[in-house]
Structures are given as C-alpha cells and as structure tokens.
Amino acid sequence: MNLDKIFFAKFLKNAFSDTVKVRYWDGTEEKYGEGEAKFEIYINQDIPKKDIVRDPFLTLGEAYMSGALDFKGNIREVIESVYKNKESFLHKANVFSKLYKVLPNTIKKSKTDVQYHYDLGNDFYSLWLDKTMTYSCAYFKDENDSIYQAQVNKVDYILKKLNLKRDQRLLDIGCGWGELVIKAAKKYGVNALGITLSKEQFEKASEKVNENNLQGKVEIKLLDYRELVGKTDKFDRIVSVGMIEHSGRKNLPVYMESVKKMLNEGGVSLLHCITAQTEGEANEWIKKYIFPGGYIPSIRELVSLMADNDLHLVDAESLRLHYFKTLKCWAENFENNLDKIKKIKDDRFIRMWRLYLNACSASFHYGVVDIHQFLFTKGLNNELPMTRKYLYED
Fold it and tell me: What pTM value is reported for the model?
C-alpha cells in the first residue's frame, strides 16, 4: 500500500462510525471496520493529502463537486455516519475556519452575498420548494404532513406567536418570497412591510402582493434593514426568519440594536434562526460555495444581546428535528426533479447543491447545529398570553 493509501486508511477509519468499503483510483478496494460495509466510497482521483490535512471540509467538498470523490448509498446517511463519530473532523469546523480571514459584512457586501445565494433563479427554487416558495425550516404538526402543509403550519405558528392585532405595523426582515407578510395581512389585518436583498425575491413577492390585491396593506422593498433604521415610523411587531445567519458575527449587536430602535415600547419580535451550541465560524466550503459571509450565532450570544438592549426573552423553542425533516424533503424533491434541474444547471452545481442539502439535513439530525425561535419584547409586555395554549388552538 502506497503512502497516499496509508493516509486515507487512517483518515477514513477515524472518520466513520460505520464500516465502509473504499474503491481507490487504481481500482483496488479496501474495507475499514468490522462486518459488512454499510457504504461504498469511490476515490476516483488521488486527492492531495496535504489539502485534506489543511481543510477537509473545503477539500472533500470540492472533490465531490468535481467527481473525484463519490458515494454509493444515501449521501445524507453517509454524512450522518461521520457526524455520529464525535472524534471526526465534522465536529471541528472552527479549528479549520481559523485559517481564513473573515471580512466585515458591510451593506454592499451583504447585498452581494445574499444575491449570490438567493438570486440563482426563481425557476430553480420553484422546482424543489413547495408552492408557497418558503425557504426556511418548516413546522411538522404531524409526521405525515407534506412539506407544503408544514410550511403553512410554520407561517401560522409564527404569526400566532407574534400575537398580532388588526392595523398593527409588522416588519419582516428578510421576507423571502413574501408568504409571511401576505398571510399576516390577509388573516390578521396588519399593515406589513417586507424587506429583502434578493432582486428575484423582491420581484416575485411584489407580484404576489398584487395578485392578492394587498396594495396599501403590504409593501415589499429591496433594502438592508440597516438602511431602514430611523427612516420609518416604528413597528409593533418585527419578525425575521433565516436572515440573521447572513449578517456576520460582528453585525449581531447591530441587528439587536436596530430591532430595539425600530420597535415600539412593548413591541414584540420573533427571531427564527439557525443556532450553534458554542461560538465559531462555519466551515469554509459552506462559506465559499453556499452562504458567503455566513455566521451561525450561538444561543448565548443572542440572549446576551437581547439583555443588553432591554429586550426581554419570552419564549425560546428548538425546531432542530423539524429542520432535519425539512431538508430531507427538499433533498428528495431535488432528486425527483433532477431532469428539469439539469436543463438549467450544470453537473458541478447539481453535485454542490446535493451535498449542501444532504449535509445540512445530516447536521441537524446528528450534528452540531440547532434552530430556534426566540420571542422577545422591547421592555416589559404584560399583554401576551401567560401560557402557550393559544399557540395550539385553531
């Protein structure tokens, strides 16, 4: 066995929690672990070991994108096998992320980063999202809920938590394709403003507002929340779903300060975001190819910033397994529509996106990330219900 294969043998033995069979670039095969192999790994080209040692996330991610690395079996389960091994590299992202310089997320950079991900085309997203075009963690009231029903559930759940009243002013920071603000206006009679940095989302959300005849009740704007502070009347409710992860670590205080400035006294805000157990940058593959400028905040970072701004935490709920199931549904939809996706995206992009959806699903199932909904008020608010009962009533 040559030196490269000796390196891979040691690396793979320490990575997986299951037995694997590996076929190398020269056609030889090896099994690592006891008993029958659960997965087959194909190393189609000799991947430089110095690159793997330096950053296995980026190196192996790029190897899969190019076809130098491949798997036989469910890719999510392959990644879960690595996550279940607590000594594997997947639990050490912060160690490798320290190799890279983190640039500040200016308004200009934030716009560029968000458009990189969300302006891939409404035609692309519509192929694997549900018909509401909701691109965030769904809420499965029943394990048999379709992804569409679960997304409807999620929007309803958030709106209930906000305890909306007719004619209140609602701001949605990072409104996506507009489902939440449209539902809020139709069901609760609020006056809603949705803001996004994605041109494609802005155009589609504005179109949906017109289709629902909600002009005058719902407005969509293409701008950064930092551009809104001090330039509009204050809001009774502020919601943000899956946006703060794009802000960058240095802008977490800016976000909380901005929410405080834009909320009326006693106002209510809901923050729905991916969370980390401890502080640390995301791995470089995700930041380079999927979410440039992204940072997953820890729970204590967020709660501490709430306290610093006299924002009182009312409720915090983990939806980790809901996001596992959401991503699993998206990955299945992606594969089921592969023929259509191939008409608009090349093979490298498809492999990249497949890896992203499945790796994220695995990370919520067995990994190091969570997702929470935080409900908090500006100053004290004694008008919210004392129990959660209202959340579960139709």
Answer: 0.92
